[in-house]
Amino acid sequence: MDINVGQVVFLLSNKEARVFPALVTEQIDKKTMVGREKHYVVKLPNKEMSEVPLSKIDAKVFKSIESARDEMVSRATSQINRILEKANINVDQINLEI
Questions:
Q1: Residue 85 near residue 77 (C-beta atoms within 8 A)
Q2: What is the C-alpha R_g of the chain?
Q3: Please, are residues 5 and 25 in contact by the beta-carbon 8 Å criterion?
Q4: Of the four listed, 50, 60, 75, 87, which is most buried by Cβ atoms within 10 Å?
Q5: SS3 88
Q6: Confidence bin at 2 (pLDDT 50/70/90)
Q7: Taking the chain, what is the end-to-end CA distance rounded to the nearest angstrom?
Q8: Has this prediction a pTM greater than 0.90?
Q9: Mean pLDDT confidence for 46-51
Q10: What's the 3-state SS for 28-83?
Q11: d(CA 9, CA 32)
């Protein structure tokens, strides 16, 4: 993902249903014998206004709140579909026992 210093990104936590903004404060370009890498540092909206390497945060990064919303809706829809599929399998089992 190509993001810019000074840009606000939205982080969708992989651990809980939470989205939080982060300010990109640093871009680190690394060139090695095997290729190039880009790393970012972001400022988090906590009391300390911590600056953390983006790679250390267990979250999916989005450039807009709308993109984060779309991902959340997609995740919720997938979960609902799994629940309903299990219920449908249980219906089939009930019908077989009658």
A1: no
A2: 20
A3: yes
A4: 60
A5: helix
A6: confident
A7: 55
A8: no
A9: 94
A10: EEEEECCEEEEEEEEECCCCCCCEEEHHHCCEEEECCHHHHHHHHHHHHHHHHHHH
A11: 27
